[in-house]
Every structure is written in C-alpha cells, then in structure tokens.
Amino acid sequence: MARTTFSGPVASDNGFITDITNTSTGSSTFNASITSVTMTGVGGTGGRTLFEMDTNVALGSFSNALKAQVTYGAAGRTTGLGSAFVAELTLSAGTTSGTYAPVEIELNAPASASTGTRTSFIYASTQGANVAAVDTNGVFLNLQGLTAGAGKMLVAGSTLGTAYGGLRVRVGGANYWVPLYAAEPS
After folding, report:
1. One-letter-per-residue 3-state SS of the chain
2. What gap in Å lies between CA 61 and CA 84, rounded to an integer?
3. Is the pLDDT reported for residue 53 higher than 90?
4. What would the mean pLDDT of 165-169 be, rounded to a whole number?
5. Residue 6, Cβ density class (10 Å: 0-12 exposed, 13-18 middle, ≥19 buried)
6. What are 174's strand-pairing partners?
7. What is the pLDDT of residues 71-103, one digit of tens each?
8. pLDDT of res. 1
9. Which of 14, 40, 81, 184 could make an S-S bridge to 155, C-beta 3.0–4.6 Å?
10. How far is the C-alpha of 101 from the C-alpha of 88, rounded, in Å?
C-alpha cells in the first residue's frame, strides 16, 4: 500500500483506506474527514458528497452505497446520545418556502422495476446475542422536543376522528395497519 500527501482531484482504481487513531479526551470534537461546500450561485442544486454504487449483476447477501458503523467495546460508551449516523438540518429566517427534512428517502421504481421479496421505505432490525434486552427495554421510535397541543405535530386526546385509512407495516412475518384519521384527536 502506498502512502502519499496530495492536493487536487485524486482517483484510485483500488480504493482508499484511511486508518486514524485519535487520543482526544473530549476538549474538542475530532473529525477524521471534513468536506465543506459553500454554494454561492443563486438557483444552484446539489452541494453534496455523492456515494454511488452501480451494478448490473446479482450481488450477494447485502449491498450498500454508504455504511455508518460505531462499535462500542466492553468499556466503551457515550455519556450522551450515540448514533451510527446523524442527519442535522438547521432552519433560518430565510427558509420561508420549500420543503425541509433532515432525512429524505427516495425509493425509485422505473418502468421495469420489480419489488423483490419485500420492499419498504425503511428496514429496521436488531440482531446479536442479547436481542432480548432490546425487546424488553427498547422503543421503536424516540421522539423528543415536541409539546402536545391542538393543531401541533403531537396532539393528545382519546377521541379519534373519522378513520381515513392505514399504513401497512411489517412486524416479524406479519403485516399490520397503523390507522390514519382524517381529523386530529380531541
């Protein structure tokens, strides 16, 4: 493996490996890599780092364009919130039009698309020797920072409106329906 210091665009036919050990004790945030893009053209689009994987063959048991992974050792932990991936979006006084979301999920299905065995917008699973601990102590969604009230994102109430329909979700090997109501609870 060759080591080099470079500037300018670089391409590799054999990939890149970055191996860094950091001994920071928390006085500052350590970033192994920083990509900073400042867009100044009105009407510009993009501004991202693109991770793309293309294939025209049957791959094996998994395939991903990007993977975020954190492994805690026997004494490893985070005193606050630990996550393998964070998507953070900061709104401003200028975000008066448009749609904003920290995570955008697009499942593209061109004319020749097949949905395979089971296709979904989100796939969540747990595995390991102590799945029972997650079953007992975990929650599916941890939503913080909202205050319940009429007309808000979170509304408390036991009287439900007229049923509109439902969203199909899969739990284990069975489909279930999360009900949707045409009016907020009261």
Report:
1. CCCCCCCCCCCCCCCCCCCCCCCCCCCCCCCCCCCCCCCCCCCCCCCCCCCCCCCCCCCCCCCCCCCCCCCCCCCCCCCCCCCCCCCCCCCCCCCCCCCCCCCCCCCCCCCCCCCCCCCCCCCCCCCCCCHHHHHHHCCCCCCCCCCCCCCCCCCCCCCCCCEEEEEEEEECCEEEEEEEECCCCC
2. 21
3. no
4. 92
5. exposed
6. 171
7. 888 999 888 888 999 999 999 999 999 999 999
8. 60
9. 184
10. 9
Which structure tokens are listed for 32?
A: 């192994």
Residue whose entry in the numeric block shows the structure tokens 């697009």? 106
CA 82 to chain centre: 14
Look at the block and give the residue holding tokens 């109501």: 181
Assign 3-class secondary structure to 158-186.
Answer: CCCCCEEEEEEEEECCEEEEEEEECCCCC
Contact criterion met (CB below 8 Å) for 185 and 156 = yes
- Residue 95 pLDDT: 92
Between CA 57 and CA 63, with CA 58 as vertex, the angle to 5 degrees is 100
Q: How far apart are CA 79 and CA 71, in angstroms?
A: 15
CA angle 52/53/56 to nearest 5° reads 140
Tokens of 44: 């510009």
Handedness of CA 147, 149, 152, 154 (dihedral sign): positive
